[in-house]
Design brief:
This protein is of the alpha/beta class and 255 residues long. Helix content is 33%, strand content 30%. The longest helix has 16 residues.
Length: 255
């Protein structure tokens, strides 16, 4: 699959948030979208998902997402919003099964293929222990993992996730990054909004650094996470280290 974003502009509340962003990606990749608060990361992924108005073009395999039917787009793109929640008392496996709705014909039951996808998603997200429980009885972090399983169940070629580890403890942050890495290794593309620069450096193939609604840097993690880029965008000085497990540790403000 090829994702193409060309000269994308988007506004929120009358204020321009994205200013001429262009990027392209092919095939299996785990792309981290990074940058300080308020630079347009969430707006960009919502535009790619065709959830907000925008100028420019976003296409998958040459087809503009805006021209796809809602059903076709829902099969092609799965989206996990920042702080996504569940407000209905659904049993966990039933909530995960909602990820298969784009694949179901009206008034048809889930097929064996759908059931297998649900089982795979539950296993990948590691939420087997919650089966049988009402999702509203889970903690915020546990619920976040169940909602990730729902997004995984779509088995879309493109998955957009917005801050997928923000509500999780360190163990489950690593666990979810491993899940996303495995999902990409299985031949799919992930675009994830991330704030933990060490996790971004360790698990992503590519990082896109946004600043003031524009692409500041785009490339391999080591090319993007440089002292100069961190000073100019995040306004911090950082320590860098690790080979097998690289880390980026902000240590002081740079202003």
């Amino acid at each position: 699959m090829r994702l193409s974003v060309e000269d994308l502009h988007a506004s929120l509340g009358g204020a321009r948030v994205i200013r001429g962003v262009s990027l392209a990606a092919d095939g299996s990749q785990f792309i981290g979208l990074i940058g300080p608060n308020g630079v347009g990361k969430t707006t960009l992924v919502r535009a790619i998902a065709n959830l907000i108005p925008f100028e420019g073009e976003v296409s998958l395999d040459g087809t503009p997402v805006s021209s796809m039917s809602p059903r076709t787009r829902a099969r092609a793109i799965s989206y996990l919003a920042q702080g996504a929640g569940s407000h209905w008392p659904l049993e966990v496996s039933r909530l995960v099964a909602l990820g298969r709705l784009p694949h179901l014909e009206p008034f048809h039951r889930a097929s064996a293929e759908d059931e297998a996808a649900i089982t795979r998603a539950i296993g990948l997200a590691g939420v087997q222990e919650f089966i049988g429980r009402d999702v509203l009885t889970l903690s915020g972090g546990e619920r976040a993992r169940v909602l990730l399983a729902r997004a995984l169940a779509v088995e879309a070629p493109l998955m957009l996730v917005d801050e997928p580890v923000s509500a999780l403890d360190p163990y489950h942050q690593i666990r979810i990054m491993e899940v996303l890495r495995a999902y990409a290794n299985d031949g799919r593309m992930i675009v994830a909004v991330l704030h933990d620069l060490s996790l971004a450096a360790r698990y992503c193939d590519r990082l896109v650094l946004l600043d003031n609604g524009k692409v500041k840097a785009d490339g391999a993690p080591a090319e993007v996470l440089t002292p100069q880029n961190l000073r100019e965008t995040y306004r911090v000085e950082a320590m860098f280290g690790g080979e097998d497990a690289p880390f980026v540790l902000p240590v002081r403000r740079a202003d």
